[in-house]
Q: What sequence folds into this?
């Protein structure tokens, strides 16, 4: 009988009730007294010099209250890069200022140069259209190879060749890697593109700035995955508002996938405008603005090489990647292609020598930053594609080449050649589980059935790992991070025994309100309904770093567990006093504090009440109250891993690909709520299938975004995907956090794209199209057809 | 401004409109029914789906004045009379058919319209019917499962969780 | 969106009068027009809704075949045309998504003549008659290139009459993002010959593939198409396909339509 509550139970989500009845409260649903509406005037050109902005006519239009331009923000700071990445020759990272509003130049289509505030949204829009700007259009820099080659064209005048950094990892290993290649019996080479994606959380970004002239306090309601980080960036770097005068509230947030980690200029602009007009200023992005201005994901061009023995043993791997960072550095855009990508290039394999080179390149396109998986999908895709290609070249079975090279359980902890220490794993177990669940043995039979229908069936595998539970501050600090990546929780026991848990994690779909309550309730032996999870408001929660990088449970959850442990320790002191026993004799179990070896006990509720009604406390040794905070900084990353299989059917006449099945065997360590974990994998795989088959962000040579709406950017729909088979029974608990958890949010998006592409290439190979060794994502019908007929 | 009256979730209501006021705006700003969401501007995402005279429509692509006098049902009107979740809503919770909740109102309204037209749809029919509702969180697995469950069909064969 | 005056006449005569005014524009289902207006690409002074005109709604058999009111939503066509003209009903049932089908209309689609819309291929392949508030227009005269039709200022479609073929089928290959036709082919076999209309492929909008018509009129089988080539020189080149790819689709989909008819 599966558990129906507590850790490991598929408890139904409590937050669903409000979402299912239309009672959710997203930023766009909030209206404040005397609220005004903002609209941003945005560049229609990819690259232009701003000679003059004339707002006179616009300001005189009906309903217009204020117009601010880049000039009004010149005295403010810039939105910073959170990670410092020096070049391999020691040169400093290039960090151009990213102002609140464009000043001097606009650098991508959608770059905002003015905020218009009016009584109604339509009035603000009308006025924005009436702003007169004298631009001198400049050549757009779009293609990375051209950006690097042509020093005459510069996105930022001061940055020669548009290169942010040229990073080598690990530089000291480079010669050894090259030497291994020089004498390798076989070398496989592949050039591939990791396609640029638009994250497309279904809720567009929105922000409301509300300045209180009486107190000088600012309040920002915003669509954020991490309200404290947003507050820190605005306070310390952009606007200089003291942190204790700024509250950031991220209420219900409709998905993030990375795109709502970052601070955006619109947030600072509505705060500044609110202060200027002494009224709340509300901005809600239209989807077309999301396409143009949300931080995009991926966009790597990579050349990867794998050196092997003839028997398929991996000897060495090296890559050269150009990573597009867009027009400005977003907060983590320098970390994503480096420490979230380069450090993963060993994958789950024993490859002894690895060297990674990444050039980050500025272009006149929207900034690029972390998107679900962030760097790890790029690493996994490159590795898993070249493993398949090498297997084909050497005539080795795709399962066997993986099994031969996977790390074995006896090798943990394992120090990878790119600097990570994998604490634990069993990659054979997930591979074996996949073979069983996906009925790989029955593939040939299914392929024959497909053939009878005129379709080509293919099987694609992916065995992957990721580093998540982001992140050990001591480690990332050495690697260039400018922030700590701990998290925090406060567990407040109220006088009547109910509990409020204030967490630094932010739930925007993950179900924290349910899962965190399961954990706290189980550890305290009380009902889940007595536990309330509070998140998303800097005035209520301790300083936490928010949710991304599959970190909420592993990091914020650990903080919560530690805070609960402190509550129990304090409760023991109180119980010892109440029971007139020694503290060391008090035991806590099943919601009761008892004196060991006796039937003397106090319930959790009695202890809680006593804590707030301390009529006879020995105050010199026992404080009243039961309210504890813990900050938790992980000792290491966590290393989820898994094995995925995708089967496709290709219609060779049209190039249409249908996903026939998708099977996942994952190791997430201990699982708190299997229903939610499976849901996270489904969603990740859905996004991975989207990347592999449908989604692509295309700029033309002038820097115009061609895929600028759902009419041209293909989002996965219900008809594009199958039911997925997922399993997370092969778990090796994380060795260094109290729950033994690893994180599951990004796995699906990391492991799935190569499985899809491998399956399509496999289908064509089996169908006799031997010339097709690779198709870049998305493997759209026209690309598949062109490959077949190429 | 023109006053537009409709019957929304069984109650006669009215609000002032301009010619360009969309039904979604009428519901959200005019009536404060913010359960109906707006997720795109090209009539693709379906977060704004409501029922007008019993049919699922995209409320962001209809002018309020064009449906004056209509019977409109929104996500706020989908619960049972006693406030408990309706059949489709309950199935979405039971089968984890939502994560961030933003597409959910449209998904529930489209699913309810499907089941009204086709009480026992196949998996393929569910997927086809939901073509105009985009979800970024769930990969659709649990949404399709929830709709099949709401139709009273056996879902035991669908992969676990 | 720019503001406008909204009017909703209840007869064709009233609508004709309302649309005679300066800056007046007809609104049908609005599934294409509203997104365009949101982008401020259209700025009518008066928007004349055709959704309240009872005489422009409904599906019935008559002298010209199947008569469908221009303001009939796709979902109604899908249901009510099924017994009479199944291929047309199936086409209607594949436009957009259910919410769009409940709102979008036959007349709106044909008046807009989007090069990737489905309905124009049925109208052209059926040799249908487009009836407006002023006259009757043969399908072959009606479509005049991408987003261009024979409609004049103040003229709007009130009904389309579809001769019912012996056999017909529409096969659509979805553009993966918009779910419009990346290419769609409507094949209709009549006593006096076969008509083949292609949408989604050409920069000129919907067109008849005359070589296929000739071949299929002699031999209504997929095999009859095997020797034909498609001139794709003026086909659409976009993110979703090259002219050559669309040319291939025309051939493949025509064969599949013949097989399905």
A:
């Amino acid at each position: 009988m599966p558990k129906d509550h507590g850790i490991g139970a598929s408890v139904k989500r409590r937050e669903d009730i409000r979402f299912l009845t239309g009672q959710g409260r997203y930023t766009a649903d909030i209206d404040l007294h005397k609220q005004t509406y903002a609209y941003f005037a945005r560049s229609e050109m990819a690259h232009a010099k701003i000679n003059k902005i004339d707002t006179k006519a616009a300001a005189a239009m009906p309903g217009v209250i204020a117009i601010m331009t880049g000039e009004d923000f010149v005295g403010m700071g810039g939105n910073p890069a959170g990670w410092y990445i020096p070049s391999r020759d020691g040169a400093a990272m290039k960090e151009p200022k990213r102002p609140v509003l464009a000043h001097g130049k606009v650098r991508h289509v959608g770059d905002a140069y003015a905020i218009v505030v009016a009584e109604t949204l339509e009035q603000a829009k009308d006025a924005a259209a009436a702003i007169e700007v004298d631009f001198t259009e400049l050549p757009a820099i779009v293609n990375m190879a051209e950006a690097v080659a042509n020093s005459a064209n510069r996105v930022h005048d001061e940055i020669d060749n548009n290169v942010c950094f040229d990073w080598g990892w690990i530089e000291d290993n480079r010669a050894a890697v090259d030497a291994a290649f020089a004498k390798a019996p076989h070398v496989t080479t592949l050039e591939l593109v990791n396609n640029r994606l638009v994250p497309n959380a279904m809720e567009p970004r929105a922000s409301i700035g509300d300045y209180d002239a009486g107190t000088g306090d600012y309040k920002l309601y915003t669509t954020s995955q991490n309200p404290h980080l947003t507050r820190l960036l605005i306070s310390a770097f952009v606007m200089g508002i003291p942190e204790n005068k700024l509250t950031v509230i991220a209420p219900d947030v409709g998905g993030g996938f990375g795109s709502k980690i970052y601070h955006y200029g619109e947030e600072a602009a509505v705060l500044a405008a609110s202060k200027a007009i002494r009224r709340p200023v509300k901005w809600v992005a239209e989807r077309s603005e999301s396409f143009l201005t949300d931080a995009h994901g991926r966009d790597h061009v990579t050349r990867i090489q794998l050196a092997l023995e003839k028997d398929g043993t991996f000897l060495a791997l090296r890559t050269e990647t150009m990573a597009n960072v867009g027009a400005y550095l977003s907060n983590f855009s320098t970390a994503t292609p480096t420490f979230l990508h380069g450090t993963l290039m060993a994958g789950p394999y024993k490859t002894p020598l690895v060297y990674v080179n990444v050039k980050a390149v500025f272009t006149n396109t929207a900034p690029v930053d972390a998107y679900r998986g962030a760097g790890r999908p790029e690493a996994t895709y490159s590795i898993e594609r070249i493993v398949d290609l090498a297997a084909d070249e050497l005539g080795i079975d795709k399962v066997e080449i993986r099994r031969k090279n996977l790390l074995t359980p006896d090798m943990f902890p394992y120090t990878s050649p790119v600097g990570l220490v994998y604490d634990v794993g069993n990659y054979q177990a997930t591979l074996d589980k996949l073979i069983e669940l996906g009925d790989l043995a029955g593939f040939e039979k299914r392929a024959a059935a497909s053939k009878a229908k005129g379709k080509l069936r293919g099987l694609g595998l992916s065995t992957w790992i990721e580093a998540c539970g982001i992140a050990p501050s001591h480690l990332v600090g050495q690697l260039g991070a400018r922030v700590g990546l701990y998290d925090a929780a406060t567990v407040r026991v109220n006088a009547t025994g109910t509990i409020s848990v204030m967490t630094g994690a932010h739930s925007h779909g993950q179900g924290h309100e349910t899962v965190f309550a399961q954990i706290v309730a189980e550890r305290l032996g009380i009902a889940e309904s007595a536990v309330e999870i509070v998140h998303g408001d800097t005035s209520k929660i301790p300083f936490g770093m928010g949710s991304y990088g599959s970190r909420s449970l592993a990091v914020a959850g650990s903080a919560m567990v530690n805070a609960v442990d402190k509550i129990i320790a304090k409760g023991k002191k109180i119980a010892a006093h109440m029971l007139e026993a020694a503290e060391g004799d008090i035991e806590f179990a099943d919601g009761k504090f008892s004196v060991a070896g006796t039937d003397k006990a106090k319930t959790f509720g009695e202890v809680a009440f006593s804590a707030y009604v301390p009529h006879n406390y020995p105050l010199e040794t026992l404080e009243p109250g039961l309210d504890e905070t813990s900050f938790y900084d992980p000792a290491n990353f966590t290393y989820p891993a898994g094995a995925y299989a995708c089967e496709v059917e290709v219609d060779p006449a049209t190039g249409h690909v249908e996903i026939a099945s998708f099977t996942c065997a994952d190791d997430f360590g201990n699982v708190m709520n299997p229903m939610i974990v499976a849901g996270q994998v489904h969603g990740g795989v859905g996004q991975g299938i989207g990347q592999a088959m449908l989604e692509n962000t295309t700029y033309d040579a002038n820097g115009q975004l061609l895929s600028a709406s759902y009419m041209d950017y293909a989002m996965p729909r219900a008809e594009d995907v199958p039911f997925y088979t997922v399993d997370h029974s092969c778990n090796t608990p994380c060795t260094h956090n109290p729950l033994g958890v690893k994180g599951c949010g990004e796995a699906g998006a990391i492991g799935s794209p190569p499985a899809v592409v491998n399956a399509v290439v496999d289908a064509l190979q089996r169908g006799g199209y031997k010339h097709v060794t690779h198709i870049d994502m998305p493997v759209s019908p026209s690309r598949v057809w062109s490959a077949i007929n190429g | 401004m023109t006053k537009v009256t409709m019957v929304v979730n069984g109650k006669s209501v009215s609000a002032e409109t301009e010619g360009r006021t969309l039904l979604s705006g009428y519901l959200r700003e005019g009536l404060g029914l913010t359960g109906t969401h707006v997720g795109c501007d090209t009539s693709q995402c379906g977060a704004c789906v409501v029922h007008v005279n019993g049919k699922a429509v995209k409320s962001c692509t209809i002018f309020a004045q064009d449906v004056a006098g209509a019977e409109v049902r929104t996500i706020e009107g989908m619960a049972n009379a006693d406030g408990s979740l309706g059949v489709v809503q309950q199935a979405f919770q039971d089968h984890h058919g939502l994560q961030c909740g933003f597409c959910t109102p449209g998904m529930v309204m489209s699913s309810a319209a499907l089941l009204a037209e086709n009480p026992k749809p196949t998996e393929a029919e569910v997927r086809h019917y939901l073509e105009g509702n985009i979800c970024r969180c769930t990969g659709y697995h649990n949404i399709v499962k929830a709709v099949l469950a709401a139709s009273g069909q056996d879902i035991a064969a669908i992969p676990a969780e | 969106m720019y503001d406008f005056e909204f009017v909703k006449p209840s007869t064709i005569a009233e609508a004709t009068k309302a649309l005679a005014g300066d800056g007046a524009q007809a609104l049908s289902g609005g599934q294409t027009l509203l997104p365009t207006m949101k982008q401020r690409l259209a700025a009518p002074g008066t928007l004349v809704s055709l959704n309240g005109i009872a005489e422009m709604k409904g599906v019935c058999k008559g002298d010209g075949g199947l008569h469908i009111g221009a303001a009939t939503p796709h979902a109604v066509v899908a249901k009510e045309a099924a017994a009479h003209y199944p291929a047309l009903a199936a086409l209607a049932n594949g436009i957009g998504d259910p919410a769009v089908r409940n709102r979008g209309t036959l007349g709106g689609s044909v008046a807009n003549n989007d090069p990737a819309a489905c309905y124009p291929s049925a109208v052209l392949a059926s040799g249908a008659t487009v009836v407006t508030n002023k006259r009757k227009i043969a399908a072959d005269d009606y479509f005049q290139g991408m987003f261009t039709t024979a409609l004049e200022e103040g003229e709007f479609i009130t009904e389309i009459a579809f001769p019912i073929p012996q056999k017909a089928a529409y096969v659509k290959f979805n553009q993966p993002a918009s779910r419009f036709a990346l290419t769609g082919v409507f094949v209709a076999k009549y006593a006096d010959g076969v008509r083949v209309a292609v949408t989604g492929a050409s920069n000129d909008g919907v067109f008849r593939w005359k070589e296929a018509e000739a071949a299929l009129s002699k031999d209504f089988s997929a095999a009859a198409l095997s020797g034909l080539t498609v001139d794709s020189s003026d086909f659409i080149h976009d993110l979703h396909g090259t002219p050559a790819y669309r040319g291939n689709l025309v051939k493949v989909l025509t064969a599949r339509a013949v097989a399905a008819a």
